[in-house]
């Protein structure tokens, strides 16, 4: 028993070290031994879970460690406070190592290999593997979002890194949503404050275009914990709609085609996007000398960008395309319903959109219907 208690003491210290810069000296062998140590304690949890005297002794030792001061920090690391925590101490260790930026590349690579061994690799403990993989994906989500946001000139929807980040974000939203209803909103607001915002907005957009996450095997067999398909996406939509400044940045930073796809997939976003485009258009005035609509301030959206965004929306399938044309016609009527250029930006937008559609139909050899966009 004394040997087991000493083992427990040493692992508590190991868990504490896993959150410090001391892990900078760890190599793959150290990580492997630490995981073996953790799995041994998980075996102890399984073996003595129903053995009253031994369980009581271990509980008492953990409780005493929790209260004492000294060692690495003040008391043991939160998370290993009772006997039940021994059942997932390997998960706690893996997650903390993933979150620790001081962990070296070789050690991190080995840890990720253990968590994601790939298809066809035999797994002697499938339940553990699923648990580790799930929590590791959650823990690595913030790491990936923070440090992989600087790739340029990508087709975001097809880029494998962006799709991986989007899937991680959706899975993490499901995890925090299980704990409490307001969890996803707080989590997203925290990421918005901590991460490179331009990259985060791109990840959100790609996440909103992902298919619903498939339920895990244990969720399929337990209807009580089954999640509604698309729940992560809905959390993103609600958060965007509840944060007007974030949504304005979202619409300004992303390419027109990507925003069209997002608003087509999530109709609740389209009225707000159209409202923003209308506000941006109203800020422009007609420069008689240049013969073009220009902004008063440097942050105003240029005519070309406004036109491209409306043009992309008009190429979307109904009902989005119809809503956009109806909104433009309403703005034109409210502005005086002019038919000549230079008097109303809405007239000029409609003329430009119809002219572009006319030229496109000529190239395709179709009937040049001027009334259609």
Outline the fold blueprint.
Layout: H1 2-17, H2 28-48, H3 52-67, H4 89-99, H5 105-115, H6 126-147, H7 160-179, H8 183-194, H9 197-208, H10 217-221, H11 231-241, H12 244-253, H13 256-265, H14 270-282, E1 284-287, E2 292-295, H15 303-314, H16 320-334, H17 345-364
Antiparallel strand pairs: 1-2
Structure description:
- This is Fanconi anemia group F protein.
- InterPro entries: FANCF, FANCF_C_sf.
- One of its GO terms (biological process) is interstrand cross-link repair.
- It holds the Pfam family FANCF.
- The protein is 64% helix and 2% strand.
- With 373 residues, it is mainly alpha-helical.
- It has a two-stranded antiparallel ribbon.
- The longest helix has 22 residues, at 126-147.
- Residues 66-79, 122-129, 216-229 and 366-371 have low confidence and may be disordered.
Give a brief description:
With 373 residues, the protein is mainly alpha-helical. The protein contains 17 helices and 2 strands.
The H/E string reads HHHHHHHHHHHHHHEEHHH
Runs in which pLDDT lies below 50 for 5 or more consecutive residues are 66-79, 122-129, 216-229, 366-371
Helix content class: 55-70%
Rg estimate, integer Å: 28 Å
- State the end-to-end CA separation: 80 Å
Number of strands: 2
Categorize the overall geometry.
elongated
Counting DSSP H or I runs of 4 or more residues, the number of helices is: 17
Largest sheet: 2 strands, antiparallel
Side-by-side strand order of the widest sheet: 1-2
Based on helices, strands and strand pairing, what is the structural class? mainly alpha
* Strand portion: under 5%
Mean pLDDT: 77
Main location: nucleus
Subcellular location: Nucleus
Protein name: Fanconi anemia group F protein
Function: DNA repair protein that may operate in a postreplication repair or a cell cycle checkpoint function. May be implicated in interstrand DNA cross-link repair and in the maintenance of normal chromosome stability.
